[in-house]
Sequence to fold (418 residues):
Amino acid sequence: MDQKTLLQSDPEVAALVSSEESRQFEKVRLIASENYTSRAVLEATGSVFTNKYSEGYAGKRYYEGQQCVDPLEELAISRAKALFGADHANVQAYSGSPANLAVYFATLKPGDTVMGMALPSGGHLTHGWKVSITGSFFRSVQYSVDGTTGLIDYEKVRELALAERPKLLICGATAYPRILDFAAFRSIADEVGAVLLADMAHIAGLVAGGAHPSPIPHADVVTTTTHKTLRGPRGAMILCREAMAKAIDKAVFPGLQGGPHNHTTAGIAVALKEASTPDFKAYAAQVVANAKALAGHLAGHGFKLVSGGTDNHLILMDVTPRGMTGKSYAQALDRAGLECNYNTVPDDPRKPFDPSGLRLGTAAVTSRGMKETEMKFIADCFNRVAGMVEDVDGLDRLAAEVREFCAAYPAPGIISRH
Ligand code: DSN
Fold:
């Protein structure tokens, strides 16, 4: 961004912003939940809409001066509904966790039973994990992936649902590399009379671009963040059937939140316009093609891929067969200019703070125009780092190579380096 004013008024913050731009430009960013937003999204998110309070909804606000906010929010809502084919959209949730909590508030009473995928299997904290409010204010039962195949066993999910009769059944994941069978979850929810919540945060961009089946025809309510594969600002949306619209809106405001972050709504509106283009469709397809290519090359280097590969943007791999743990390897990779996060793998014998695995995603590198050929370079770098985890000089030399490699790929939004 143009930071002349910031530089003058607060050089310390300006320097950190500038360093972060360089860091994002010079690294191969493979954190599966991250991306690069466009310059247009950054400008909308950094706009004067941050100055405005707008508690309520269009036409029914508790503050005056909504001449621009009302049409902005209505524009974001209509773009969200059109892009995903939803009856209703709420674009006010601050992020993914509040969006999920709003669904709990709209559909449950404290102590009711919820059922989601366990965090170590690739679920999210807010899918009922014990340390989250969703696992302590509600009665939470959790399903897991099969420890051997790494896949969801839909028959086991069904059996657990029949035994526990959840009021809210949650599907969706943060570390599941395969297609989710939303129709199977629908049929389980129907059998036990549960509301079905699909959290599509990780795959929303793939759904928008037609590279992953949509949960919209199956789920009663769908939550998503807007900044992962969807490539918008940090924010969230809740999409639902008309029958749930009033309850969802009421749960978000006044149930859970005060004024919406209108600057975020502006960024979301821009991202939704971008996501409805043929270019974005091609992007979503390339994200998956890149993940498959990267997975193939990593397997060729002896890494053990959970489920044997990927259908989406995400790869989960057990690095212990190569004599490393997830944390030490992720730290060495970061030093060498390749950024990812350590992650548990199914039935991980190790603790989450130093687990057996790594999670990788191709959303950000694909936004820079990288394709299958570049995935081979990246996988080769992973192999080289595995051979020198403690060799800091070797890692620093590789980081210089990675910087040179990255320089050829423009990063959306980072115009200072173009
Ligand atoms: N923290 C996000 C992720 O990395 O998947 C989920 O909210």
About this structure: The mean pLDDT is 97. The radius of gyration is 21 Å. The longest helix spans residues 278-300.
